[in-house]
Amino acid sequence: MPTIKDVAKYANVSVATVSRVLNKKGYVSKEAEENVLKAIADLNYKPNSVARSLYHKTSKMIGLLIPDITNPFFPELARAVEDVALTYGYTVVICNTDEDIRKEAQYLEALQQKYIDGLILTTNQLSADNYENLGIPLVALDRQFSNRVPTVSSKNYEGARQATEYLIENGSEFIAHIRGPYHVKPADDRYQGFKNVVEEQGIAHIVVDCDFTMASAMEVAQGLFEKYPTIDAVFASSDIIAAGVLKVAKNSNKQIPEDLQIIGFDGIPLGEMLTPALTTVAQPIYKMGALSARLLIKQIEKQPLDVKNYEVKTTIQYRETTRSDA
Amino acid sequence: MPTIKDVAKYANVSVATVSRVLNKKGYVSKEAEENVLKAIADLNYKPNSVARSLYHKTSKMIGLLIPDITNPFFPELARAVEDVALTYGYTVVICNTDEDIRKEAQYLEALQQKYIDGLILTTNQLSADNYENLGIPLVALDRQFSNRVPTVSSKNYEGARQATEYLIENGSEFIAHIRGPYHVKPADDRYQGFKNVVEEQGIAHIVVDCDFTMASAMEVAQGLFEKYPTIDAVFASSDIIAAGVLKVAKNSNKQIPEDLQIIGFDGIPLGEMLTPALTTVAQPIYKMGALSARLLIKQIEKQPLDVKNYEVKTTIQYRETTRSDA
DNA sequence: CTGAAAGCGCTTACAG
DNA sequence: CTGAAAGCGCTTACAG
């Protein structure tokens, strides 16, 4: 690979001049510029980003820390981040942390040593300090973890309210909410939205805990239906949980949505592949990813942020696991 | 962040000595070593990988080029690659190419400028030359594209044979194969496996083309069932296609697996979330990803490859869309 | 065993 | 307008 020296020699100028035309900065005569441009083309020269990194202490790379790309919520998010990163000339490094504090620390160290320009975080294991001390731009995605870092999340509370109201409008009288893990902000907010609506309207309800995995959802749903056979609707805190509920319900020969309505949360592609297709509170996942990448790049490039926190709207995706009596 | 100079000053030695203890290479006195180690600890010094990259022309990063992380086959693959990369101290850059030659070229250029150490490719758009001229280690994953580059793939032909034989053993007498795109090696091999078995055994069959998307699968299946209502089994070239077939079949009130058996290919998590759960020819996806990462890192680290090409075995995952008369 | 020096490929004051 | 030089943070011959 040719270096800037080769170009300089070929164009009969100094490396400084080559650098100037490369960066379009500083004066350079028409003639010199033409020679340099020709040399670059002739030699098929590409500036070496490592050398640039060393000087600028910046890398044109951003890190995306997620719990696990294998969780169907994340691929679309990652895709969006990557798409906008590519547009702006950034490259993205994906880090699966498994919410494991040691892995997070290991990644952070590696990324820092590479002059990573910024981080998008969908994780809240390490305390906020660990990130803020890095001294690089951050964006929190899905979960807010410090009011000093810009955040992109969706209106979990409002979405949960709408879901619950919709089940009630459709005639359900005994609604179960299978909530996600405690201290995970979105799970808490969805729970709160559910609770407020059923209490305001005086609807019989039951809340049970669950992981965001299908296996635990099936176990929980099994127990729930045995104990409370008259439950006529489930609001699941995620689509994966809803998928588990659906499976158990069908195995127990419940008619869906006649005997039991089910509504999920997230809007992952899985939902529409199920039969019956899952009604869900859809988050604009791609948009959230894209928004967070833009927010991060703006900070990296020192542009002013007109909005610091985005709370995007959810929309109910009406499909086949709910009735529409309303 | 402290640099090697700070450490040298603190330890009262030269930077050369610090570098020697960092790299455990060259002679250094017990005493000097201790001082340096203490300095490193006291200052919390981490060597800068960018500077190292510049000197060594290597980056401790590997690139993973995939068509689209949003396709459910890839997250698990990516996860595996990332897991083993982390183990060996490498970081992975994910590139969604959409099988678009311009995007691939753009990524290749960016990665090359960063001294990427090697590439795992699951794509075959660019001609082999474009990659081989990069002069860095490569591994082809899922699809072979040159006999000079180590490849990890699964026994698509054999898997397809087994699937077809299984459907026949279970009594199916008119089998449809919905194949994937032409010139995609795995799709071709699966087709070939299917064709050979039905012809050997003299079973009525029909083959139709399809993309690896659920939408096109549903369209194809719809047409297929209308034209040939007596089809009693479908071998789909991927699980996504199978999911589409399943949906259409259920909408047409076919009893599964009584009226119609369905078997997919891939073994993605979606399969078991469906109801009935999908029988499929499962590839060891995680293993394939891990294998390819190891194969790549071995090349990067100039270790001999005892095996250059891996063809891993598939296994039928018996679930609910097939009978088991056999 | 150890340090001074050159070099990896760039960029940017500083002179001129 | 242009070039020589220093510097980004390392590593590694080369002397000693």
Automatic annotation (TrEMBL), chains A, B:
CDD domains, A to Z: HTH_LacI, PBP1_Qymf-like
Coiled-coil stretches noted in the UniProt entry, renumbered to this chain: none
Chain ranges of the HTH lacI-type domain: 2-56
Lineage: Bacteria, Bacillati, Bacillota, Bacilli, Bacillales
Entry keyword Glycosyltransferase: no
Identification of the protein by name: Substrate-binding domain-containing protein
MF (Gene Ontology): DNA-binding transcription factor activity; transcription cis-regulatory region binding
The entry's keywords: DNA-binding, Repressor, Transcription, Transcription regulation
Record's keyword annotation contains NAD: no
InterPro entries listed in its UniProt record: HTH_LacI, Lambda_DNA-bd_dom_sf, Peripla_BP/Lac1_sug-bd_dom, Peripla_BP_I
